[in-house]
Amino acid sequence: MTWLRGGLKLAAMTSLPPAGSLSRIRIGSAPDSWGVWFPDDPRQVPWRRFLDEVAGSGYEWIELGPYGYLPTDPAVLAEETGRRGLKVSAGTVFTGLHHGPEVWDATWAHVSDIAALTQAMGGSHLVVIPAFWRDDKTGRVLEPGTLTAGQWRNLTTGTERLGREVRERYGLEIVVHPHADTHIDSEENVTRFLDATDSSAVSLCLDTGHYAYCGGDSVKLIETYGERIGYLHLKQVDPAVLAEVRAEEIPFGPAVARGVMCEPPSGVPELEPVLAAAQRLGVDLFAIVEQDMYPCDPDKPLPIARRTRAYLRSCGA
Predict the structure, then answer these.
(1) Which segments within 177-228 are labelled E, that is strand?
(2) 220: Cβ–Cβ under 8 A, 6 or more apart, which residues?
């Protein structure tokens, strides 16, 4: 085990696959890698440019990103993606299910539109991101960073219900995304959540960058909870910037603006061992590149995307 700056630990690289051998891993990218966090923001790359550039970078799969950024008319979106050779793997929803049954109706109203579009586009997954406990722009504390026992029960039972209803109504699998500044973040909280939820209803979207940001070891998680890993987001953290973020208690949004998420392979965790561990699970998995870069110069994402795709090919993906 190698220890790096900022207290992160990284499993030793062993049994890495030769190029082209990650046959169960389907690589894609997302609007996030083009600095897109919101449905409409003048600082973001226009959606047509994103589609042109993600296809031109060699990716076949994409996520929908924030609902409303890409066209929400399935016929329009199918035409725009199809002529570029792109396919949709997943949509993304935000939830606050730890607040209990009283938020279910509002949650479902948000989820149903996105699930319907994902289904219409042939997607198979819905990435579920828990609510932030502090504002990701201002750092204002919105609620305690630790859940009560009752709130944990609300979170786990509500997520199970969401998983079952999304599958029944839309034929999609939910994958819960551990995320910085949410209540599902560290190894302790991720494993607590997995242990308390039904594996038939709830799987995990392991985001390698967020998990490292919160001190977790992605390879260890895959090897320990492999049957719960339903989806991957690939990103890396700059350990030096992360050390500053921790020391100054900077919230996630400003940390991203400072460059805490960096271009592979310059950060941690190393992605070759993560991909090799995922391949050993023996199941088909999406691995979607997400390099948080909001806000960023509109000319910055394309060269990074091309280099990242070439790097992942060198890893065998």
Answers:
(1) 203-207
(2) 11
pTM of the complete model: 0.92
Residue (of 231, 122, 105, 108) closest to 174 by Cα position: 231
Using alpha carbons only, give the angle 172, 92, 270 rounded to the nearest 5 degrees: 100
- Selecting from 3.40.50.410, 3.20.20.150, 3.40.50.920, 3.40.50.970, what CATH number does the domain 2-13+21-314 have? 3.20.20.150
> What is the C-alpha separation between 255 and 155, in angstroms, rounded?
27
Cα–Cα distance for residue pair 116/2, rounded to 1 Å? 44
Euclidean distance between CA atoms 38 and 109, whole angstroms: 18
Domain ranges for the chain: 2-13+21-314
Token code pair at residue 23: 């046959």
d(CA 278, CA 110): 31
pLDDT tens string 226-264: 999 999 999 999 999 999 999 999 999 999 999 999 999
Give the 3-state secondary structure of residue 193.
Answer: helix
The DSSP 8-state label assigned to residue 202 in this structure reads -
Q: pLDDT, tens digit, for every residue of 186-202? A: 999 999 999 999 999 99
| Sheet strands (E) in 177-304 | 203-207, 229-234, 236-237, 261-262, 285-289
Q: Compute the distance between CA of residue 37 and CA of residue 31 in angstroms, rounded to an integer.
A: 8
What's the distance, Cα to Cα, between the start and end of the chain in Å? 24
Strands 61-63 and 87-95, how do they pair?
Answer: parallel
Q: Which residue has the tokens 């050993």?
A: 280
Tokens of 26: 């389907």
